[in-house]
Fold this sequence. Notes:
mainly beta
Amino acid sequence: MRILSLLLVLACAGPVLAADRHAGDKRVYKIDSVIATRKGAAILVQAKGAVQTGGWKNARLHVIHSDKTTVTVEFVAAPPPAGMTVIAALVPVEAAAQIRGRAPSVRVLAEANEMTAQVLQ
């Protein structure tokens, strides 16, 4: 019984740990460009991309993994509420983040693609 309870707790904890981004955020549709530059002990990452409709808000970069070689981030935003009338077209979005780390490259993930940029000194 204890093992079953422990397995249940671990199964439920995985999604909670992975979901420390805002609850309703989703990856943007695509990434068009990524620039990463060293700023002291941090990396300044700037990303531009697009979503498939209007109404998306709060685009941001969310770190999901970091090691000595690469920082991996998701390009996410809050989608429009269900039932909201929005334009059905690619709409540009952009976000920037300052990330602590010394990795030489940054990988940014979107729904349809991903890009890797070398960190400029």
